[in-house]
UniProtKB/TrEMBL annotation:
Residues 1-21 form the signal peptide. Keywords: Signal. Residues 301-324 are annotated as: Disordered. It holds the Pfam family SBP_bac_1. It comes from Streptomyces armeniacus. InterPro entries: Bact_solute-bd_prot1 (IPR050490), SBP (IPR006059). This is Extracellular solute-binding protein. Residues 301-314 have a biased composition (Gly residues).
Length: 444
């Protein structure tokens, strides 16, 4: 899921490159032999960390220098495609696993399996490597930071309602979450505000909490299903907006940042957001406003068709799908070993933790996760670190045709469903029947 800008104008000024700047990399063929590193860092702390690490690398490696090239999340896919086809791609590419599928299938990215140092391979768990493993089991990126979906809640409203705040070790079940939202509903305050301007990734990724996936493999091919386990969370959202009225319909057209003014004013008691939004909350919250980071609700068990409701105690599944940020190598570069050496340097445990803190995200490496500054209750860091063991590859990763399905079918269908325009049966028909026709075209 592509990073959302907190302050659009400021971010655009910081991060937007010209096409010429991005296309200037020539896969290791620069005049001075310098490797080009396309970075999509855009927050001040993250940009400073990346540039400082590049400078440190260059000081240590004067004969294999790296040039920092600023990119933008808003335009990276189209610009990379143009540069790949023109033979002028950056040597080292910062992107997101969700964006790698077509590039890997097109032969534009190097398979890293024969290049990965043993130490780097071992420090990142297999569940994270699965997020960057696509056709023929090739590894096309090093996953280094990721972020779960969390609940940001108004602590004062929780305390006033006498509601138990869930902990990572003991999250709410989905029925408990619905009950909490009802108890928080009162006057002008809604229990929760679902921002569904871009509803598909979060609808699919959260289906894992109840044993769903939406995307499945049948006879070696990707197919869409939307059975009970897949639709459970979507039904919760629909019910909160259209039946219990614990969530406002008006938030459905919002992005995550759009919900924050209402959250700060007490109109919304809880807002489900990506983990990195904590930085914006911390920066923009009014003086004296107390907020807390809570884990998303969980179902019971981990397999499709399991009991989604759950209950207090053990056996609850807090898994959810994510698409981590990655570092890849262009297939055309003539200096793959040097490029990998730089990636290994950037993802050393202390460096990985530094990059994660700059982006307010969670590192993938087991040693980086032990960083003391990440294991603190302050700003909810400990919640994200604890949730990292429950993060799995988003079901959409590696699915060719997903982007078309999302744009043409799933986005309008989910938006109609959440607003009450269509029922569950019609939503299922659109997602499955129309969706499988699209996926079939990509798998002939």
């Amino acid at each position: 899921m592509r990073r959302r800008r907190f302050l659009a104008a400021a971010s655009a000024a910081l991060a937007a490159p010209s096409a010429a700047a991005l296309l200037g990399g020539c896969a290791g063929s620069g005049d001075d032999g310098t490797l080009d590193y396309l970075s999509l860092a855009w927050q001040k702390e993250s940009m400073e960390a990346n540039k400082a690490l590049v400078a440190e690398w260059n000081k240590r490696n004067p004969n294999r220098k790296v040039r920092y090239v600023q990119g933008s999340w808003d335009t990276v896919h189209d610009q990379l495609l143009t540069s790949f086809e023109g033979g002028e791609a950056p040597d080292i590419i910062h992107d997101e696993a969700n964006d790698l599928t077509d590039f890997a299938h097109g032969g534009y990215l190097a398979d890293l399996r024969g290049l990965l140092p043993a130490g780097l391979k071992q420090q990142i768990p297999q569940r994270s490597w699965d997020m960057a493993t696509f056709p023929d089991d090739g590894v096309y990126g090093v996953p280094f930071v990721q972020e779960p979906r969390v609940l940001i809640a108004n602590r004062k409203l929780l305390d006033q309602a006498g509601i138990r705040a869930p902990e990572p070790e003991r999250p709410w079940s989905w029925p408990e979450f619905e009950e909490a939202a009802k108890e928080l509903r009162g006057g002008r305050t809604f229990g929760v505000a679902w921002s569904m301007k871009e509803p598909v990734n979060q609808s699919v990724n959260l289906s894992l909490t109840t044993g769903g996936a939406v995307f499945y493999q049948e006879d070696g091919k990707n197919v869409v299903r939307f059975d009970e386990a897949d639709s459970y969370v979507s039904e919760v959202i629909h019910r909160q907006v259209n039946k219990t009225r614990t969530a406002p319909e008006g938030s459905l057209g919002m992005g995550g940042s759009d919900t924050l003014p209402g959250f700060f004013s007490g109109r919304y008691a809880m807002v489900p957001l990506n983990f990195s939004f904590r930085q914006q909350v911390q920066q923009q919250a009014p003086d004296g406003f107390e907020w807390v980071t809570l884990p998303m609700p969980a179902g019971r068990g981990g397999g499709a068709g399991t009991d989604a409701g759950g209950g207090s105690g053990t056996g609850r599944a807090a898994v959810q799908g994510v698409s981590p940020q990655t570092l890849s190598i262009a297939q055309d570069t003539e200096r793959k070993e040097d490029a990998m050496a730089f990636i290994a340097f950037m993802t050393r445990p202390d460096h990985m933790a530094r990059l994660a803190k700059g982006d307010w995200m969670v590192p993938t490496g087991t040693e980086a996760l032990r960083d003391p500054e990440l294991n603190t209750a302050r700003h909810g860091w400990r919640t994200g670190v604890h949730m990292s063991s429950d993060l799995r590859a988003s079901p959409v990763l590696g699915v060719r045709g997903y982007a078309e399905w999302m744009d043409k079918i799933a986005t309008p269908a989910f938006q109609e469903f959440y607003s009450g325009g269509i029922g569950l049966g019609e939503l299922r028909d659109k997602l499955v029947e129309d969706g499988n026709r699209i996926l079939a075209r990509y798998q002939r």
